[in-house]
Amino acid sequence: MVPDKGMILDPAEVSRFLWEFNSVSTPAVIITEEKVYQGRFSRVSKERVSLEVLSPMGDDAFPLGSRCAISFHLGVRSGIFVSEVLELVESASPRPPEVVLRYPKVVARGETRRTFRYPVSPMLQLRVVLTDNEGQFHNPKALDLSLAGILLEFPGARVPDLSIGNEVNLEIRLKNHLVRLIGEVRHQRQRQCGLVFKDVLDAGLLDPPQMLITLLRAVEARWLEERG
């Protein structure tokens, strides 16, 4: 299902949500324009949210004023928000450094047991290469993405003839992030084709590779930023 307005928390819910996740030092993924970091909540105030950065950092990590997405989950509940970097605090060893973000006005929440389909913004420049049964390469546009599948649209007159149940090879790339998957055709109508990720759905269970999760979080973050 496509994310709906009900996933967006109002200001009072944002406060309760963030304080709850911070109270148990919830692990988080910090997504910048260039890199993905592992982190965890460390402090929440009325104006700021701080997270410890657990991944190695370069000298140019988290420039002031840049924006990043924070994705986190606890049990079956998850959340994501986009915010501005206010400060990077280098802590004394052995404590990790903290990235300090502006308190977000908008937070989206969900349940990790559900596989929401997020619309893919053209501004994200997500690239897809599909290899059909005849070994021909195609560059369709990704319309939406989930951990279980993808909806594609083929531009121009070159639309592959894909039958229901056909398997195709997919490469999905965002900047220096790349995941390779096997897609199974579930439906095709005119220029659009819906695929499920066959190698992700194992005996009916969802077992996505970490890189697919990273790509989906970037799609989530862009969707949330455009809505906010």
Number of helices: 2
Overall residue-averaged pLDDT value: 85
- Strand element count: 17
Helix content class: 10-25%
Overall CATH architecture of the largest domain: Beta Barrel
Segments where pLDDT lies below 50 for 5+ residues? none
Name the shape in a single word: elongated
Whole-number count of domains: 2
Look up the CATH topology of the largest domain: Thrombin, subunit H
Could you give the distance between the termini? 20 Å
List keywords for this structure.
single chain; 228 residues; mainly beta; Pnp Oxidase, Chain A; Thrombin, subunit H; 8-stranded antiparallel β-sheet; 2 helices
Q: What secondary-structure arrangement, pairings included, does this model have?
A:
Elements: H1 11-23, E1 27-31, E2 36-44, E3 48-53, E4 67-74, E5 77-89, E6 98-102, E7 108-111, E8 118-119, E9 127-131, E10 137-138, E11 141-145, E12 149-153, E13 167-174, E14 177-189, E15 192-197, E16 201-202, E17 205-206, H2 210-227
Antiparallel strand pairs: 1-2, 1-4, 2-3, 3-6, 4-5, 5-6, 5-7, 8-11, 9-10, 9-13, 11-12, 12-15, 13-14, 14-15, 16-17
What does this structure look like?
The longest helix is centred in the C-terminal third of the chain and has 18 residues. The strands form three sheets. The protein has an eight-stranded antiparallel β-sheet with strand order 8-11-12-15-14-13-9-10, with helices on one face. The chain has a six-stranded antiparallel barrel with strand order 1-2-3-6-5-4. Strands 16-17 form a two-stranded antiparallel ribbon. The chain is mainly β and 228 residues long. A hairpin with a 4-residue loop joins strand 1 and strand 2. The two termini are 20 Å apart. The protein folds into two domains: 107 residues, Electron Transport, Fmn-binding Protein, Chain A (Pnp Oxidase, Chain A, Roll), CATH 2.30.110.10; 110 residues, Thrombin, subunit H, CATH 2.40.10.220. The protein has two helices and 17 strands.
